[in-house]
Amino acid sequence: IENTIKRYYVELVPGRKLKPTKLGLVLAQGYHLIDSSLVLPTIRSDIEGQCNNIAKGLAERDVVVRKAIELFSAKFNYFVDNINKMDVL
User: Fold this and answer.
1) CB 51 within 8 A of CB 60
2) What is the pLDDT of residues 40-80, one digit of tens each?
3) Dist. CA 39–CA 28, nearest whole Å
4) d(CA 84, CA 8)
5) Is there a contact between 34 and 88 (Cβ–Cβ < 8 Å)?
6) Confidence of residue 88 (pLDDT cuts 50, 70, 90)
7) CA 71 to chain centre
8) Rg (CA), the chain
């Protein structure tokens, strides 16, 4: 949270709530335009579920980590290939 405030993506408002800045909104819109899963909680939820499976002995740590790295590597490459979509914002 501290980094998002330092980078001016959000600001802390009364009640200890975070309010997106214009920059934060534009970045989120751009990420959503290129790959909506980067701003939606689905991937994080899936990975948290896999971590729970590791804790329960239902999944192997190395397999979960490898799949997560492969997923984010593919997402990074797709994002780089489509970064020009940010220009419309």
Assistant:
1) no
2) 999 999 999 999 999 999 999 999 999 999 999 999 999 99
3) 6
4) 23
5) no
6) confident
7) 12
8) 16
